[in-house]
Amino acid sequence: MKVGVIDSGAGGLTILNAIHKKQAYLDLLYLADDGFAPYGDKTTEQLQQRLIAIGQFFEREQVAAIVVACNTATVAAIDTLRANTYLPVIGVEPAVKPAFRLGKKRKVAVLATPVTAKSPRLNQLIALWQADSEVHIMSSASLAYDIDAWPESQGRVRQTIESLCAKMKQDQIDTLVLACTHYPLVKSYFIECLGSACDIVEPSEGVSAQLKRRLEAAYPEKMSLAIHSSKEGQIDLCTSSSEDSLERLLNWVCQPDRVYKKRIVSV
Asked: Where is the binding site for substrate, in residues?
């Protein structure tokens, strides 16, 4: 059982790591679409056409399902992908529902890329679950891109997070939703700046659980065999960019010492 995981860069590795931790029997094929990054600069139409091409790539790779491990791509193009592939498609949404349940003072910050921050889907989720919570939508045009440029960008990443967190503390935020899969990669910086009084929520475990449900529904016999197998799945890392991009991905995988199959692909 092989699952394809897509993000514009390294961010989706937070999702891949969670899937591997919970479902180590799955083979995972990760595509960092660096050659088309950053997604936040693209129009909805561009993202839709790109995800159709990525779906075709994963079909050629014979995956059993696709995980769109990118908030921007999910809100802009996941419906188009689903309409153009026969594979189950699992997306990632800002974890606002658990955030509103966690909020002590009910002051919630949702930190996203500009595309996600302005998306109708995010506003629908907030309207559905916020009740009497106070919500602050925040965005950064550079943070995800700088995380992909790690480690040279470490200073810029820290500076951006310190600036964002200063505003959150000024607004007395008690719960932070990391609404871009890149951001949990540097969660330790947010913890350092905000302290233990602020809960930080991200969606990786929820996506992993949803993937398992979808696979069991679509492939009950294969999943039963896979779950009871003692074999650990293989993890392949791909990029649409360069060898340098492949090496950067190793900064964020949960098992940096294992052997990964790495390749540059054309999408």
From this structure: 7-8, 39-40, 71-72, 181-182
Mean local confidence (pLDDT), 225-245: 90
Q: Is the pLDDT of residue 97 over 90?
A: no
Active site residues: 70, 180
Whether residues 138 and 197 share a domain: the answer is yes
CA distances from 261 to 29, 31, 191 (A): 9, 12, 33
**Do 170 and 225 fall within a single domain?**
no
Q: Is the pLDDT of residue 93 over 70?
A: yes
CB count within 10 Å of CB 193 equals 17
pLDDT digits (tens, 9 = 90+) for 98-142: 888 776 668 999 999 888 888 888 898 899 888 888 999 999 989
Q: Are residues 12 and 133 in the same domain?
A: no
* Known binding-site positions: 7-8, 39-40, 71-72, 181-182
Q: Mark whether 86 and 171 lie in a shared domain.
A: no
Domain containing 79: what range?
Answer: 2-93+204-264
Number of separate domains in the chain: 2
Residues 140-150, mean pLDDT to the nearest whole number = 91
Question: CATH no. for residue 188?
Answer: 3.40.50.1860
